[in-house]
Amino acid sequence: MDWQALWLTARLAALVSTILLFISIPLAHWMVFSRRRWTFLVESVVSLPLVLPPTVFGFYMLMATGNRSPAGRLWSAWTGHPLAFTFEGLVVASVFYSLPFAVQPVAAAFAQVDPTLREASSILGASRLRTFLRVVLPLSLEGVIAGLVLSFAHTVGEFGVVLMVGGNLPGVTRTISIAVYDHVQALQYREATTTALFMLVFAFAVLLIVYGLRRRPLAAAPIA
Amino acid sequence: MTLAVLLTKQLNAGFALEVSFRAEPGVTILFGASGSGKTTILRGVAGLTRPDRGRVAIGDRVLFDSQTGVDVAVPERHVGYVFQQLALFPHMSVAQNIGYGLAALPRDERRARVAAAAESFHISGLLERRPDQVSGGERQRTALARALVTDPSALLLDEPLSALDYAIQRQIMDDLRRWNETRRLPVLYVTHSHREAFALGDRLIALEHGRIVASGSPHEVLDHPALAPLAALAGFENLFDATVTARHDRAGTMTCLLTGTSTELEVPLGVAAAGTAIRVAIRAGDILLADREPAGLSARNVLPGAVAECAMQGATVVAAIDASGTRFTVHLTPGGADTLELRPGRAVWLVIKTYSCRVAAG
């Protein structure tokens, strides 16, 4: 087992899923409850990583974080080092790449909350924020947890984007999926087997959590 | 305080809602078939649906006025609303549901108000339960307490009791009346059930296709339906298509033949020439039964028939009587049914006064 790569991957995934939690909740709220007609445009952009080849996505991220792009130059000027091929660069790329996995379960959960509950809250004097915090969010907790778990797992499992944006720097950008690839390339099958088995157990555990949550009767069902 | 409503709104159903009325303190029934615009009126008052034009005011507080551009936000309107599906928060206890609208109050005062409201609606023992752990009637009581604990300036009820049996409906409405005795709120109560309308309302507004077709006391409106669709709604259990066969202008009656049968009825004279299609409506409680042919009656309609079915519904015996091809529904008391020894197959005579027959255009 490559403990360094495992630790790096855990840090990356924890950071990315936490950041995504704070992005996905307001974004999903806007997508579900906004009356604007172009929400579909944002939905499409958010879902782009689902259909784009990871190398293509990684290529664009590399271009965007490199020193030739305005964002990359801004980052360099601010921190003194480039964004590409760093841990921070990997975090930024992973946030975009895992965004649909965080947003979609949350948006689906928000959309399932009975609209009359929001109307009832509003009539009882609650602001939109209070309605959201006291009614919509508690009834969507399963979706939020699913989003958190899925974005964590997806970040753990990404390969192409990491390779494009981060390269393969031990302790900096070398994640566990890269490590497996390296082991195989170096014909270290024993290490590859242990790491791969670990990933298999991990992935299965994640899916158990997600589907286990879904089996519970939906708390958002309206009570008549 | 009085709730004054003037609303115009184009509805998806393809007609426009156009109403103007005042609801005084007490219960005003909004009565009509589903799709007649009742719920849209409530939503317009609460601010959930924006009218195309109009004005909504409670006392001198204007909530909406399309001319001056006033449109008070929903949370600031201070109206109570009980949804048809109740919309209780499923993840909160009964106490948290009732106290939801009191967030601005200090904890102790909130708790006291919740306890008082729960007591008024007889749910004090259920405060810690969740809505899915109490009965249907208790959920209705919770929804009412939640709406009223905030001291709203009007109460809007969208068929809140239609799913409950009659006895529980009456109890809940009695509690609501008692609660409202001192507060004198205008209460708008939407229903399509004539029984609820009679039992609960001080005043009734009948709606059809988005317009007010009649208003007054429930008895004034529902006992004299101007139109056949309203008659059907107003609880005339017997409603027949018929054709006028003869007019008896001096006697003040006309004879009509019920369509598809050989039953002839004498009904009050109306503006209908012989050969015109009409509808005849008779209340089940207005038909008398006799076990032999009655003689010396003023009633013009005496028909031989036989009992087809006979069943208890609450405290009423409901009998279906077949007479020359027509099935009549008759309501009578259990005592009356016993005296006649009513059972399927028994021969009886139906007695119907001319003026118990209401006539509307066919």
Structure commentary:
The complex is a heterodimer of chains A (224) and B (362). By secondary structure, chain A is an all-alpha fold. Chain A has one domain: MetI-like fold (Orthogonal Bundle). In chain A, 77% of the residues lie in helices and 0% in strands. Chain A has helices spanning 3-33, 39-51, 54-65, 70-79, 87-112, 115-123, 128-139, 141-157, 160-165, 176-185, 189-215. Chain A is globular and about 65 Å long. The termini of chain A are far apart. Chain B has two domains: 3-232, P-loop containing nucleotide triphosphate hydrolases (Rossmann fold, 3-Layer(aba) Sandwich); 236-361, OB fold (Dihydrolipoamide Acetyltransferase, E2P) (Beta Barrel), CATH 2.40.50.100. In chain B, helix 3 crosses helix 4 (136-148) and helix 4 (136-148) packs parallel to helix 5. Chain B is 23% helix and 36% strand. Chain B has a six-stranded mixed beta sheet with strand order 7-8-9-3-10-11, sandwiched between helices. In chain B, strands 2-1-4-5-6 form a five-stranded antiparallel beta sheet, with helices on one face. Chain B has helices at 38-46, 94-99, 107-120, 136-148, 166-183, 194-200, 218-223, 228-233, 334-339; strands at residues 3-10, 16-23, 26-31, 53-58, 61-65, 70-71, 80-82, 155-158, 186-191, 203-208, 211-216, 238-248, 253-258, 264-268, 277-282, 288-290, 301-313, 316-323, 326-332, 347-352, 357-361. Chain B is of the alpha+beta class and 362 residues long. Chain B starts with a strand and ends with a strand. Chain B is built from nine helices and 21 strands. The chains are: A mainly alpha (224), B alpha+beta (362). The interface between A and B is medium-sized, with 23 and 29 residues.
